[in-house]
Structures are given as C-alpha cells and as structure tokens.
Amino acid sequence: MTIRPANPATWRAARCLAGACLALTAAVAAPAAPPPIPVAEIRAGMTGYGLTVFAGSRIDTFSVRVLGVQENARAQGSLVLVEVGGHGLERSSIAQGMSGSPVYLDGRFAGAVAFGWEGALSPIGGVTPAEEMLALPTSAAPPPAGPRAGGDWDPRRLVCGRGHELAMTLFGAGAVPAAAAAPTRDLVAGWPAPLDLAADLLEPLLPRGGAGAPAWLVRPAGMATASAAVGNIPAEEPARLRPGSACAVTLVGGDADLGAIGTVTWVDGDRVLMMGHPLLQRGAVNLPLAAADIVTILPSRRLSFKLGSPGPVVGAVHHDLRAGLAGRLGAVAPTVPVEVRLNGAAPGTFRFTVADDPQLTPLLVFWSFYNALLAGGDDASRQLLDWRLLTTWRDRTAGAPRQLALGGVASGPGGAGTLAGEVMTPLGLLLDNPFGTLALESAVFTVDVKPGRADAVVMALGAPRHVAAGAAMLPVTVELRDNDGGRRQVPFEIPLPTALPAGTYRLVAASAAEFFAFEAQRAPDRLRPERLEDLWELLATERSASTLVVALFSPDRPAIVGGRELAAVPGSVARAIDAGRQPPAQALARYAARASLATDWALAGNAVRTLEVAPAVPARSNARRP
C-alpha cells in the first residue's frame, strides 16, 4: 500500500497534511499528559519539539521554532506558524501524514501540526492551537438520523445524465418541461488511477474553503492482504496508542485499502484526538479508526508525503470537525461487506469492507467495484461489461431484510467510468432517503467481461402503418447499427390491448435507459416518490442500456396523483380532484402498449414512426332489406 497526494490541480495551494488517527487494540497506561499552553502565551522565537513517526511505528521527535501567531486566521481561531527541523525536514519540509503531530513548547502542549504549503522553500507549517483540539467533543454521539444530503436528494439523478431528446422528438421542445433532469458527475474516459478516482469522487464532500485534501493511502485490488489482526504493525511490538503514533481513517479495507493517514495528537484513556484539521468536516460520524505503519517520507518539490500502510482497526472516529478528529478506542465502527465476482478471461473474486455512512458508502462501493475491474481489465475500449449488483437492506427500526437488484452494461472507451452514477445513485437515494432509516447489509457484484465492443445505435423502426382494431399483435422490426457499421434487424412482437381505441399513435424504439430518462419528461411526478415503497418501486424499474423497448403511445394525457397515473378516473374521483386546491399533474402521453427484449448490445439512439389504428368495422347483418 502506498500513500500519495491526490491530483494537486484538484486542491488548494495550502494543503492539509494527511491525517487520521488510530489506536491499538489495547492501550497501555500513559504518563500524565502535559498541561496545555494558551495561544495568548505563545511568542515568536519560542522553541520546543514535536512528535511523529518517520519510519515503522517508532515515535521520534523533531525540532520546532515559533515564527509567530496568525491571529483570527479562521473564524474563532488562530494559527501558530512554526518552522520545523530534523529527520530531513529541512529538505522535505512538512509532509502530508504529519497532520496531528503534537507540538510542545516549554514542556506544555501547544497544539497539532495541521497545515503545509505547496512549493515551500522552508519547512514552515501551521499548528492548530491546543485549546481548539481539546475543545473537540468527548461524547461518542451517533450521527443524526434522517437525510443529510439536503437539496442533493433527488431521484431524477437516476437518469444518469441522459438528455430529453426522446421527449423533444415526440412532443416538441415547447411541450417538454425545462431542467427536468438533475445533473450528474461524469468520470474521465479510460482507467483513472485509484487515488485520482478517489479524489474525483470525494471532492464534492470536502469542506469548502478548507486547506485541501488529506493524503490518501491506497493499495490496488488484487495485491496480498495482510492479516486484519495485526496489519503491518510488528508482532513483537506491543499494541499501544500515544501522542505521535501513526494512525489512519480506513474507508475501504480488504483487497484494496483507501483511507487517510495521519498522527495522534492527544490520548486520554480511550479518548483520542488527531489530525488538527477536518477529513471531510462531516460533523458527527462513525468511521473506522486504525493504526498505521510508515515506510518513509517521500520528499517532493510540491508537497512531501508519508508512504505507509494501515494496521488493525481498533476504534472509531466520532467527530469530524474543523479543529480535527475525535474518536474512541474499543468498539469499532461498522462496515459493509462488498464482493466482486469477475467472469471472463481473467476471472477472480475480490472482497472488501467499506465504511457504513449514508454519503460515503455509495462512492466507496463503486470505488471497490472499479478497483476489482482494474485488476484484470484493459482500458475498456474493446470490451463489454455486463454487470449485476445484488444489495441486501435492513430497516434499522424493524422489518425483515429485503433485496434490490441492479444491472446494466458498459462498452467502449471509458465505459466502466459511466457506471458511477448507475451504481452510486440508487444506493445514495436509499441510504439518505427522507422516508425511513435503512442500512446496507451487503453488496455483491457479478461482472461478465466479454471481449470486443458491443455498441449499437437504434436507426429505424419497421412496422405496419395501419392496424385494424382488435388486432392481438403488432409485428415490429428494429434496425440497429453496430460500432463497426454493420446493420442488424431485430424482430419481435408487441401484444396489443383488446380494446385499443381507433386513432393516431406514436411507435417508439429505444433502450430501457432512454425510456427511463424519458419518464422524467413524460410524467415527472413519477420521479418524485412520496413514500419509501414508491422509491423501492422506482429503483426496481428496468433501465438497462442493453434492453430494447418498443412502446406505443396514445395522445391521451392521464392525470398523475401521488406519482401514479390514473388512466380512467371515476366521476367521483375526478370531482374530488377538481375540488382540490391544485390541479393534478398530467403526463405528456399514455402508454398504450409496451414490450421489451434483452440484447447483447449497449444501445443508444431512438426511432419513431406514426401508426393508425382503424375503427372497427360494424358486423354486417344477414337480414334482407324490404
């Protein structure tokens, strides 16, 4: 496992030094902690020392000289500016991973090293004062229940960035509501490095106006996993946690590790403080806390960083605040098991554990899935990924576990990256939903990796232009063009309702993914669930790009009440709706018939044509005219 900074272009110039803290399975009695020194008593020229790990798990000292105090550098807080030395810091300057290193002046605790600056020519850093660190909460309060994403909770994200071309083709630009689909984040094409992917996924969660990113630690999927009982901590060294020890917040463990490495600042019984700055500034959290082992410090002209590995998980981080992280040793934070089964030329099974957190879990599940694909994949330009995800859920208050199955395909350059929204969005909507508190118990991926691209575009739709009323089936042929330019004819039949009214209809062919995005325009209220069961139903809707759908649309505009279409409203219900304060929403059109067919392609595009249903011809009587 290695640690390196995320893409520097992503973060601010003033950088946090990677941090998280960890405790060992059994904390040994420690001498009485030195008293704190108020920031008001700190003066330029004062000297002292700091504690951190430069290699292995041994705590060493480094020299500290105070340059001054930057008053009110932050709201309700100052920053102590120091110059450090020893152990090559004159060359490397302050490194990511030193976050939380305690600093002592005149034998008193002065604070935690927390900040460094890119390109610094002198080993100068910022120290979060002791008062701010010691003011971090002592209670292990659980994260608040209920949704935490605020205005970001929007089921329309399920459309995964697809546009509303189909709706515009059918009904015209003037009939289509504007901004019907919420934005989604796209990943770059190709295979991003694990750290670059983590930086891209986590960037929206980083505190705005903060000093930058932690130093992420990562080991790619497929490498040997150290024993979870001892990690990389030498077996002959007794487990202990002290100020200056290396620690880590472990977000993913198992066949790949992802987390942030740092230094322990303060220990009081089972209470630990670390980092001196936030990880994501999430407030109350419950994240795994682990020990760490440092290989070395890698000097860099931009910002040096520690290379290290996580050890055993021995506790939990309960507070992620501006001044740092606070946690407890003993009871460890819960995690969610994730399994990825790859079938194809390089089969294998990968197992991970990810932090159980409403906002973090979805992206960590995808990160684990993506890293398993990296173990045996190419750049995704000449392969098809046919994936299924089976998730098991439990109501935190009551109820038996229930399962949700997701799936789809990806093909072509950057195909794997396009799965981010398809995997993360449904998980996020359930974990952070406003209707009930759900827990993800497990996630199991099955992926068939098939050689060669399998893209196809819907080009044309063949069907009779006139259909007699009472016909039972409508024969249809959909023409596809594959990525090599070849043409394919896909025939199938659509069952028609027995009492299909005469009139003009629109016949449409597209993928289930396009039809699902189309629903955000045709019947917007369907993507605004009002109950948890509505959300389950929405998430279970077929939306794979490999499923070909042909639908017959009626010009009728049914009312939508509670997200459900009322095609034939009884008079009493119609009067009740009319008596309401708000007029009922209406769909742009109604499905008269619909059929789907699983294919071996990742489909795009659509085809539309008009169809006339002739009125039924009255039966001729056998009676003679007088």
Category by helix and strand content: mainly beta
Quick one: how many beta strands?
32
Q: Helix coverage percent of residues?
A: 10-25%
- The fraction of residues in strands falls at 35-45%
* Strand order across the largest sheet: 10-11-12-15-14-13
Biggest β-sheet description: 6 strands, antiparallel, barrel
Average residue pLDDT: 78
Shape: elongated
How would you describe the overall organization of this protein?
With 626 residues, this protein is mainly beta. The chain folds into three domains: 1-167 and 193-205 and 213-223 and 240-333, no CATH class; 337-451, no CATH class; 454-614, no CATH class. 13% of the residues lie in helices and 41% in strands. The chain has nine helices and 32 strands. The strands form five sheets. A six-stranded antiparallel barrel has the order 10-11-12-15-14-13. Strand 14 and strand 15 (324-329) form a beta hairpin. Helix 4 (194-202) packs antiparallel against helix 5 and helix 5 (360-376) packs antiparallel against helix 6 (419-431). The chain is elongated and about 105 Å long.
Descriptive labels:
single chain, 626 residues, mainly beta, 3 domains, 6-stranded antiparallel β-barrel, 32 strands, 41% strand, elongated
Quick structural gist:
It is built from 9 helices and 32 strands. It is mainly beta and about 625 residues long.
